[in-house]
Amino acid sequence: MAYIGNIPGxxxxxxxxxxxxxxxxxxxxxxxxxxxxxxxxxxFINNVRQEPGSGKAYxxxxxxxxxxxxxxxxxxxYCIFQGKAVGLITPPDNTISGAKINSTxxxxxxxxxLPATSVTSHLTYTHGTAxxxxxxxAFTITAGRAVADVLVHVNGILMTPTTDYSISSTTLTFVTxxxxxxxxxxxxxxx
Length: 191
Hints:
Layout: E1 17-20, E2 28-35, E3 41-45, E4 48-49, E5 58-67, E6 77-81, E7 104-107, E8 110-113, E9 126-131, E10 138-140, E11 150-154, E12 157-158, E13 165-168, E14 171-174, E15 183-188
Antiparallel strand pairs: 1-6, 2-5, 3-4, 3-6, 7-8, 9-15, 10-14, 11-12, 11-15, 13-14
């Protein structure tokens, strides 16, 4: 027979089964496997499937099965696990290096690739300030900076690199002089 897609497996796994011994008074039973909720098991008493959920026959969470009414001694009671709860694995601090982090991601259908060295545990920036006087356009900044790694704010408004200012050596030059008493903030991004 022909198939579209993957051919079905030839082997099937059998769901795990756990039996319980009711005593007419116990309503809480320990499960062999952890579950997220009662929908991950099917519970049967005398081969009759019980309805899961709060206010129904039973609830289950973690490794506890809780019955709404204690099953009668001598009843045949068992559950079949439909799925196992998946635990979260939290790696210890300082155990993942930049080489283990995927450095390619998609932003608005444009792929951006970052070098593995761009992953840093703590990014800090330094900054400088100045005050506008309505005529000065050139300000001295830290050496070794380019227009791409300096953020400039004038009175809290972010300026656009190359449109509003340029950088040459240690001089940042505005296209238009900041207004008198304007607060200028230079933020030097980490390299």
